[in-house]
Amino acid sequence: MPRVIGIDIPDKKRLVISLTYIYGIGSHIAEQICEKLNLNPSMRAHQLSQDDIARINSLLQSEYVVEGDLRRTVQNNIKRLVNIHSYRGLRHRSGLPVRGQRTSTNSRTRKGRRKTVANKKK
Questions:
Q1: How many Cβ atoms from other residues are within 10 Å of residue 19's Cβ?
Q2: Mind listing the pLDDT tens digit for each residue in 25-61?
Q3: pTM, whole model, 2 decimals?
Q4: Are 41 and 31 in contact (CB under 8 A)?
Q5: What is the DSSP string of 18-56?
């Protein structure tokens, strides 16, 4: 398995699909990376040479915010919202949906223990 910026990407899948296993890279950015480095997007990841992997590593580190740096940035943004006691910060702290979704029936997708929002009337 090729290692790109510390992440093992699957070697049997196409290069564009394999790059999306890195946190912060979607299909659009993966296509851009292949285009910038003149790599064939339909080639398999195990066909990459060490030179190609080094070029991908250097491009990701110089132009994109991915993996640990991106996770840290997102966590800092959430922590800032909680610290300033904004509405979104309060929703993050209580583990409820942040972006205006309804909670009476459909807020069951959050992680952790279930939080009762409204009791059913009998």
A1: 25
A2: 999 999 999 999 998 888 898 888 899 999 999 998 8
A3: 0.74
A4: yes
A5: HHTTSTT--HHHHHHHHHHTT--TTSBGGG--HHHHHHH
